C-alpha cells in the first residue's frame, strides 16, 4: 500500500514526492531542491502577473486617453457650433435693427413689440430657468427668414402672390355646384350659398390629396425641416407642419397612436400650433370675404415655427420624450379603397364643419348684438350710449396692436378686431375686417360721426396676420375635448 503525501500543486516535474510503505522506512527527500524549485516557479508566476497587470493598465490608460480625446473633440465641436449660432443670431439681430431703422420708427416699434412679447412669455413661463433657447431663437429666426423671403424679395413675393391668385381662382370652381343647387341668385345669400360651399369643395380636395399620399409627403418634409433646424421632437414638428394645411382637430389625428406617450410640453406645443394657424378648409372662406389670399398663406406658413418657439418658451421640456427620431414615426392613413369614395367621404365630413360654422356665427352675432344693446343701455346712464363690446376690447387690446406695428390711429380698430377674435372667433373678426377693406376700396369718407370707417393698407395687413389663427375660448374647449378622447386626458389634470 502506497500513499500520495503531496500532490496539491504541479511544479512541472520539479517537485519530489514522498512515498511511504508499510514495510519500509520513509525515504529522505531532498527538501532544499524542492523549496528552490517552488520559489523559482512562484517568482516566475509573480513576474508574469505583474507584466500582465502593467499591460492591462497601459491598455486602460490608452483607452481612457482615446475616450478623453474623443470627448474633448465633441466638446470643441459643440462649443464651436454654439459660437457660430450665437454669432449668426447676433448678426441677424443687428441686421434687423439697422434694416428696420431705415424703414422708419414704426418698424422699430414692431421690433420692440417682439422683444416685449418674448419677455412676457419668459416671465410667465412654467419653468423659466429651464428654457432651451435653441428652439426659441431658431423658431423666431425661421419666421424672419420666411418673412424676408416672401415679403421683402420680389421673386418670392410674386410667387406667393401668384399662388394666392391661383388658389382664389381654384376655389371659384365651387360656384358651379352652388349655382346648380341654389339657383342663379345664390349670391343673394352670400355667406350661406357662396362661402360655405367653398368649405365643402376644399374639404373634398384635401381628402383626395391625403388618399394619394401627397399631403403626408408634404407635411412630413415641412416637419422634418423644422425638426432639424429647431431641434424639436418629431411629434411637435409634424403636428405644427400639419396645422398649416389642416385644422387643429385633424392634425393630432396624424399621430394618434403616439398621443398616449407625449409629454406635457409636447401637448402644449400641439395645442399652441393648433391655435396659431388656420385650416385649409376655412382659408377659402376668408379669401371669399375679400382678405388677401397671399397674406393668409404667408401667415399660416410663418406661424408654424413661431408657434413652436413660443410654446418652448412658455412651457419648456423637462421630461425625456418617449417618441424620438429613432422611433420610426409614421402618420396615420385612411382606410378608403378608391378616390371616388374618398371624395364622397370628404364632402360628407364637411357637413358637420359647415353646420358648426353657420350655427356658431348665428349664435355669436346674436349674442354680440345683445351684449352691445346691454352695454349701450348702461353707457346711456353715464351719458355714453356709444359703449359697446368692440370699444371695451379696443381699449384692452389697443397697446398690443400698437406694439405689433399698427398705426396709432388704427390701433383702436385693430384692438377691437382682436377682441372679436379672442372672445368669439376669427370668422366674426375677418367679417368685420372685410367691411373695413371694402370701405377703403370704395373710397368713401374716412370718418363718419367721429368713427373711423377704414384703415391704412399696412394696418389691414398686420390685422390679417394677427387674426390668422384659432386662438379663442371656443376653440380651447373644442381642442381639450378632442384630445381628451384620444387617451391623453390625464395630461390635462
From TrEMBL:
Recorded superkingdom: Eukaryota
Q: Where is the Concentrative nucleoside transporter N-terminal domain?
A: 113-184
Q: Where would you say this protein principally sits, based on its record?
A: membrane
Task: List the GO cellular component terms.
Answer: plasma membrane
Write out the GO biological process terms: purine nucleoside transmembrane transport; pyrimidine nucleoside transport
Topology of this chain in the membrane: Multi-pass membrane protein
Q: Which InterPro entries match?
A: C_nuclsd_transpt, CNT_C_dom, CNT_N_dom, Gate_dom
Name where it's found: Cell membrane
Q: Which residues form a coiled coil?
A: none
Q: Does the keyword Membrane apply?
A: yes
Q: Where does the Nucleoside transporter/FeoB GTPase Gate domain start and stop, copy by copy?
A: 193-290
Q: What is this protein called?
A: Sodium/nucleoside cotransporter
Q: What is the lineage of its organism?
A: Eukaryota, Metazoa, Chordata, Craniata, Vertebrata
